[in-house]
């Protein structure tokens, strides 16, 4: 009997590892910037963040890439798989399985996943947002993802049987601001594609295919406030997470600076990108700055 149990345990570990590699592959395929930041995390936190990213990407692909007549049904099925896996810890969908393992270990619950899927579902029908729907969308699509990530950071070395470590209010505020900043920068970066391919705009008061200087200035101020709030919470994170979040913030700040240097009409016709050498330089500078700050604090 013990031999059978041992064989089953080995098989489950193999399945878990395969699910983790699947999530890592999704991140590697879809995001250079986010991927660079995660490499600065410890092994366990890397795996957890990749699992979160992969599920988010899977849902995003349904509403932004597939967009079939049954996209709503596909999204419903993915949400049902996720809810079931949160209860059982298992899924035949490898991405969902990896996410559920992470979620159950770090304390991610339906409080995060339900608003996330609600925001994803709105992408199937909503083309323009007012302030209320925009804030609800950003919360569900991005701020809760920040909350998932901060839970992964805080519980990286949590052992079985130990209570889940809950983020404090400053960390919650910072995590939500981080998710919001990244999402809004992505909105600006993808403005042309969202307009041309999806007929969609996210920022309140704007319409697809139109953005003027005053609107862009207001959006940039809003994002800057989010970035500053996120940056203020970085010192409260575990050491490896400080390096990773700091580097990713630096990358998005550089992208935001590049976006801010363009006239609005440029954003409507092309996607702003950072060359890989620039990304590597930004990450390197951020790591050195964090290392110097750490040495100064220890002195």
Describe this structure in words.
With about 300 residues, this protein is mostly helical. Helices cover about 75% and strands about 0% of the residues. It has 13 helices and no strands. Helix 1 packs across helix 5 and helix 2 runs antiparallel to helix 11. The protein is globular. It starts with a helix and ends with a helix. The model has no long low-confidence stretch (mean pLDDT about 90).
**Terminal residue distance:** 57 Å
Reported for the largest beta sheet, the result is:
none
**Structural class, from secondary structure content?**
mainly alpha
Strand content: under 5%
* Percent helix: over 70%
H/E topology pattern: HHHHHHHHHHHHH
Tell me, briefly, the overall form.
globular
Low-confidence spans: pLDDT under 50, at least 5 residues? Answer: none
The beta-strand count equals 0
Rg, alpha carbons? 20 Å
Mean pLDDT: 92
How many H/I helical runs?
Answer: 13
Write the layout of secondary structure elements.
Elements: H1 2-30, H2 32-38, H3 43-66, H4 71-88, H5 94-106, H6 110-122, H7 131-154, H8 169-189, H9 191-198, H10 213-233, H11 239-260, H12 264-267, H13 276-298
Helix pairs in contact: 1-3, 1-5, 2-11, 2-13, 3-4, 3-5, 3-6, 3-7, 4-5, 4-6, 6-7, 7-8, 8-10, 8-11, 10-11, 11-13
């Amino acid at each position: 009997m013990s031999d059978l149990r041992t064989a089953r345990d080995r098989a489950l570990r193999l399945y878990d590892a395969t699910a983790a590699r699947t999530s890592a592959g999704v991140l590697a395929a879809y995001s250079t910037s986010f991927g660079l930041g995660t490499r600065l995390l410890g092994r366990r936190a890397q795996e957890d963040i990749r699992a979160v990213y992969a599920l988010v990407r899977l849902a995003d692909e349904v509403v932004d890439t597939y967009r079939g007549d049954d996209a709503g049904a596909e999204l419903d099925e993915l949400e049902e798989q996720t809810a079931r896996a949160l209860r059982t810890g298992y899924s035949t969908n490898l991405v969902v399985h990896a996410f559920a393992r992470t979620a159950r270990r770090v304390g991610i619950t339906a409080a995060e996943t339900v608003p996330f899927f609600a925001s994803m579902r709105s992408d199937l029908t909503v083309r323009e947002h007012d302030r209320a729907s925009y804030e609800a969308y950003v919360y569900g699509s991005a701020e809760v993802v920040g909350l998932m990530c901060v839970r992964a950071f805080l519980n990286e070395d949590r052992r079985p049987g130990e209570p889940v470590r809950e983020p404090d209010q400053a960390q919650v505020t910072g995590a939500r601001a981080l998710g919001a900043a990244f999402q809004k920068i992505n909105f600006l970066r993808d403005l042309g594609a969202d307009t041309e391919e999806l007929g969609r705009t996210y920022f309140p008061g704007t319409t697809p295919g139109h953005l003027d200087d005053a609107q862009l200035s207001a959006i940039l101020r809003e994002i800057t406030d989010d970035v500053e709030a996120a940056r203020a919470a970085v010192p409260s994170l575990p050491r490896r997470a400080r390096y990773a979040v700091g580097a990713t913030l630096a990358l998005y700040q550089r992208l935001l600076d590049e976006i801010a240097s363009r006239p609005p009409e440029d954003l409507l016709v092309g996607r702003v990108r950072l060359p890989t050498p620039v990304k590597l330089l930004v990450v390197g500078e951020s790591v050195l700055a964090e290392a110097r700050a750490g040495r100064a604090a220890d002195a």
